[in-house]
Amino acid sequence: MMSGTNNLKSAAEMMMCCACCGIAEGDDIKLKTCTACKSARYCSVKCQKDHRPKHKGACKKRAAELRDELLFKQPESSHFGDCPIC
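Structure (tokenized):
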């Protein structure tokens, strides 16, 4: 049985490798992040296209969560008070 620490390590390691082929990021390989969900990373456009059918559902869900966070984020309060005009 895996412990919680191993699960966290695996998630962190997965962020440092291509979601499709598993190749690790290095000096000569720069991974590109999915622009919609910001959670998957790819070494090439080919890997991104090949992985798209598997990633599409989770990507749409995460992208919607990110949009909601941005839309419903409370604005920073100012020293002028709670007046939205000021």
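The longest helix spans residues 45-71. The chain has two helices and two strands.
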